[in-house]
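Me: Here is a favour to ask of a fellow structure person. Could you put it straight underneath, so I can go through it closely?

Assistant:
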Amino acid sequence: MTATSVNAKTAANKPGAGMTVGLFITCVNDVMFPQTGQAVVTILERLGCKVEFPRAQTCCGQMTTNTGYYDESIPTVKQYVKAFSGYDYVVAPSGSCTAAVRHQHPMLAQKTGDQGLIRDVDQVATKLFDLPEFLIDVLGVVDVGAYFPHTITYHPSCHGKRLLGLGDRPYELLRNVRGMTMVPLPMEEQCCGFGGTFSIKNPDMSAAMAADKARHVRETGAEYVVGDDNSCLLNIVGVLSRGNSGVKAIHLAEILANTEED
């Protein structure tokens, strides 16, 4: 599909018309950043999608899986299948959780030897898209009609960059935001130091990595550091706020949801 621009004021230009999309909010967003989920809904509805929030959804199980509790993670996998099996597409505002569903759920299902579960997980896991993937690869849109008159720098999360292979997608969406200046982030490929349980098991190393990332953010002179994973942003902005830098953090979806009328 050829990527196009969308005029938010043109009702006829709705590439998502007729689609019913399930929103996988993820734990961090549900508990700490509900505005990110609301922003995803705003964007998708602007593009013509009908968005539903299955209340039966739960955690992706990444933290228990990463810690080696495979058997204990299976109920989470089954619950994800139950919550989202009825949708053709599922969208999440998190590269990390999207990667967990795509890569860890099939692995966990295989370990059970349950052929029915293996089949169901394979079918449902492939329906999940991180927001930039869904906008560009499924809807074919690079310009969602956003406006954000600020200077930003973008931090690509490890899972989004390496496991999902998001590549240029987030940058392409950001380049089409009107009124905004984007400054390259030095050493952008370096991890922020969060890594879920990594920051708990290796606090000194995590703190040093976060300090490096925060220093690079300050070097850009940006007003906002933007990312596709709020867990990363939480770690980065924690260091920035303690240093009274004045730099704020904002999720990619919240920028894309903003228009001149807001």
About this structure: The radius of gyration is 18 Å. The longest strand covers residues 151-155.
